[in-house]
Amino acid sequence: MNAATRMRGDVLLVGSMPFDDAETVFRETAKGLKGHLGCMPDGEVGPRKNWVGMLPEFVFSKDPQLDVVSAPAGGQLTQPDLEEGEHIQESEGFWTFKIKPGVKVRFDNLLYADFAIESYGTFKRLRDEGVIEPATRFQVCLPAPNSAINAFFTDTSEWPELHRAYQAGLNNEIRRILDVVPADDLVIQYDLAWECVDLAMGEANYFAFWPKSTVAEKWTRHTAFLDELWQPIPEETLLGYHWCYGTWGGWPMTEMKDLELCVSLSNEAVSRTKRRVDYVHMPVIKEPDDAFFAPLDGLKIGDTKVYLGVVHEDETSIEPFRRRMQGARRHLREFGIGGVCGYGRIDPSDLPQVLRVHTDCATELARI
What we know:
single chain; alpha/beta; TIM Barrel; eight-stranded parallel beta sheet; two-stranded antiparallel ribbon; 11 helices; 33% helix; 14% strand
């Protein structure tokens, strides 16, 4: 391990887990990944199971500043069953909203602090009891602005105001978390999913209502928030970025040819952040060739730790992981490992095996 990194642990859990409560998440991951985790998320359980789907269901739809334009049947998002390479082109099945006329929108409670504070109480109790290892930090995963807003507001002229309001609201959530969680016991991870999906599609759009943009225009739009995301986070708190290709309808949501986009975003995040970026996470496809990993040669991120998502949840043999790790090692000497994304949509009964695979892979990584 790079001695200069502050990020402990050779395994990173990206965020979501398939359980109903945070205590089960903490107990299962503490047992299944003992000795491998430097930080532990609460699994984004309960209302957060659909990740940003929590926002329209529990925040936007109850906000008197907003009008509901459309809502999914039953009031809940339902994951589509898509063929490989198929994309949703309309907003059918999604919540969509508009700002009410004359309103200057603000988001005073995005609920992330409420959930984090509740989970931290459980986390701290279990750590005090010895269930969770002593030096493990509490990890909070937060959607970046475009991921939170862009799928739910079809009038794109409203996006700038909504993005500003969401960023201000997110800053307030972090301040509220820090009122309870000590800064040196916290990890903040930003998840950028719609950002990565949109950039990976070039000039094509996932949703038909998204503005027609060049790749350069998309890059400017999605990276602008890197100037702001770090600002409410004290230096004692660890900061990470998860470059996410999404699992809505199956992973990845768009083609992933190589790690070029993840490397470019990592370099951009580190260069635009006026404090340390402690880690970045990049997913890895099942059958990567050398060209897939070659962009890692262009990383310019200093002591920032890299976690590669070389674990695929449906594999049980160590051999596929060994091939991926060996391929990555030709271009990056030191890295940690993880899954390609969160595990919130797998069968809970499968998770112990998935965690065993992580442990086997981490053991193998130490040998290579």
